[in-house]
Design brief:
404 residues; three-stranded antiparallel sheet
Length: 404
């Protein structure tokens, strides 16, 4: 939803404030640099901010949505109908918007670059392709941004300037590849927001590519009218995109079912519980749990009694060190669980590719509660780190299954 909202707001701003953007370009450039710098400090927790502000900064600058939308408007303008007023205004501001976007994307690039672990960095992984595509985009942005300034453009021959600006095609290609790679992990986890964003980006990039190719062919073969072919191709593209969306939504439902449903060994059945506790207590357990499969209230009573029994017996886990893994937001989370005296005594993170700031927030809360004796199934996810929270809980639960 954030992407839709920003696309709409930026379009409104361009339509009604194009004169301001043009007349006060230098002031807006400086303001963009200041915003980007302050956003980076907020992302790094160097500046205190309310949770709402942190969320907006993370979405707009940390994830680069604001700069991405500006680049999209710059890209799509040439293929829009020349009769549209919005197209005329965007086209006249393409250089300004590109410069602003380049300044705003700085905080995103700097923030994400600090997440790169050079020691553990290995080629061939999704993360390596994400970082490499981002690096090449930054390299391409330097000449594209510099030559977008009017004062620089006047000093360059027209042919030379056009050659430099053709680098934008490579930039847009890397831009889309980067988006797909970044979305790969969330898509595997069934993140609906990632699916919606990827579909929107694919629609915009696909539309641009289709009509851009059509314009090139039309200029070469002016005697042929390509409008009927473009209309059919565009309709087919929309249908294909819709089918892809349905397929991703179906995969999402399966992913959610996989995450939320416990594994076969994650909980003890009533019969297994009866076999695990002393015979002197079996009668009371039977009375306590009778009909639990049909009544939620009875199930809760059985769970409460089970916890009391565990406490009396000093825990039900075998002493030792166990490792478990589960999917988080960006990939697998591996956790080591140490058991002493039948209870959890220590928790360690072995590996994680999550965003450190949000993962740490989830880890601090969940690990503390679990070490205090809370069970993983009882703990809520941490706001803003839902998938990381689920990954931590599931990884710990998988490790505990080995200790039963």
């Amino acid at each position: 939803m954030m992407l839709f909202f920003i696309i709409f707001l930026v379009g409104i701003a361009i339509y009604f404030a194009d004169d301001i953007l043009r007349r006060h370009a230098k002031a807006i450039y400086l303001f963009s640099i200041l915003c980007s710098f302050c956003a980076f400090l907020v992302l790094e927790d160097k500046i205190p901010a309310f949770r709402t502000i942190q969320y907006l900064v993370q979405e707009l600058f940390g994830k680069g949505i604001l700069a991405s939308v500006l680049f999209l408007y710059v890209m799509i303008a040439p293929v829009l109908s020349k009769q549209w007023t919005l197209r005329k205004k965007i086209y006249g501001l393409r250089a300004n918007l590109a410069i602003i976007a380049s300044f705003l994307i700085f905080s995103h690039n700097l923030f994400q670059s600090r997440r790169v672990d050079l020691v553990a960095f290995s080629f061939g992984t999704i993360d390596s392709f994400v970082y490499l595509s981002s690096l090449w985009m930054v390299i391409l942005l330097i000449p594209l941004t510099v030559t977008s300034f009017a004062s620089i453009r006047k000093k360059i021959a027209v042919k030379q300037w056009k050659k430099i600006q053709k680098l934008s095609y490579l930039f847009y290609t890397l831009f889309y590849i980067h988006i797909v790679l970044v979305s790969w992990g969330p898509l595997q986890m069934g993140n609906t927001g990632a699916i919606q964003n990827l579909i929107v980006y694919t629609f915009i990039f696909g539309t641009y590519a289709l009509f851009r190719i059509g314009i090139v062919i039309q200029n070469k073969y002016k005697e042929i009218s390509l409008k009927p072919y473009l209309a059919r191709s565009f309709s087919g593209f929309i249908c294909l995109l819709f089918l892809v969306y349905l397929a991703l939504c179906h995969q999402t439902e399966a992913s959610y079912a996989s995450i939320e449903s416990p594994s076969k060994n994650s909980t003890l059945t009533i019969q297994e519980t009866l076999e695990a506790i002393p015979s002197s207590l079996q009668e009371s357990v039977q009375l306590e749990t009778q009909g639990s499969q049909e009544s939620k209230q009875d199930t809760k009573k059985s769970s409460a009694f089970s916890k009391e029994t565990k406490a009396e017996e000093g825990g039900i886990y075998k002493d030792g060190t166990y490792q478990g893994s589960a999917k988080g937001y960006r990939g697998n989370i591996e956790i080591e669980v140490e058991i002493q005296g039948g209870k959890i005594s220590d928790l360690k993170v072995l590996s994680s590719r999550e965003d450190q700031k949000y993962f740490q927030r989830a880890w601090n809360y969940l690990s503390q509660k679990i070490l205090e004796g809370k069970e993983t199934a009882e703990l809520d996810t941490v706001s803003g780190a839902t998938y990381s929270s689920k990954g931590i809980r599931n990884a710990i639960q998988n490790a505990l299954e080995q200790a039963q």
